């Protein structure tokens, strides 16, 4: 994307905010996918280095030849803090959040812009997420995303789901000065944000044509260890959501329905039954750790829960 004369002084239409923490290789692929966008509106990219062991390497900075790129380095403060810092540095009328291990389809930003133009009354947009079917972990993730997005999509086109691996909001609705996401939420900050939207009776619009691939760069053991850590960190955030009286999580009946749907979908050759068993193990492990953390009260932080109670 070549920069036109005077473009630097004009605010772009989109600001793509990416939080990074020691994941420069997948981030470089994410930035490559942004450089390959076709028909996209004007956009900038804001990378927030959340206290990585070393500053962003040259291979990251080189992408500034393709689009306006800002790299902001801060002390490690967690995903919410990093996303908030990125929003403060962003100039676009729309804030687009993706993860460092995501890849945008070539027409993603163009179709997101078209969807937003078609829905001027909507302020929040969940992009469609898919997994990387070339690896078993990715096929399990793809199976999970297919089912969750199908099951939680509403008849009116909105979705009872929010994942900042692919999410957009109009700047006029973002509380940038006070922090878009609660910095006390170390994980599940997007689910807490969804709970706040649900309290206002406003769900994200499902921008199903704008596709983001969540390409998990971990092997199976690394993925399971991350699941354990993530569930442990999420416990306090889910306490906060429960204190709000908002039912964000699926019921046991819904979970069983989704498992049956996943089993049927896993019959596809591109996914396979093994992916279903992998996903089942991941989901059970996550639920067990989450329940143990909530029951024991041994959580890394609970200030977010205290603020909401």
Describe this entry's structure for a reader.
By secondary structure, the protein is α/β, with parallel strands linked by helices. Helices cover 44% and strands 17% of the residues. The protein has helices at 24-35, 58-61, 79-89, 108-118, 136-152, 189-199, 220-244, 252-265, 273-296, 303-308, and strands at 14-20, 43-50, 69-74, 94-99, 102-104, 124-131, 166-170, 205-214. Strands 3-2-1-4-7-6-8-5 form an eight-stranded mixed β-sheet. The radius of gyration is 19 Å and the shape is globular.
Name the descriptors.
309 residues; alpha/beta; 10 helices; 8 strands; disordered N terminus
Give the helices and strands, then pairings.
Blueprint: E1 14-20, H1 24-35, E2 43-50, H2 58-61, E3 69-74, H3 79-89, E4 94-99, E5 102-104, H4 108-118, E6 124-131, H5 136-152, E7 166-170, H6 189-199, E8 205-214, H7 220-244, H8 252-265, H9 273-296, H10 303-308
Helix pairs in contact: 5-8, 5-9, 6-7, 7-9
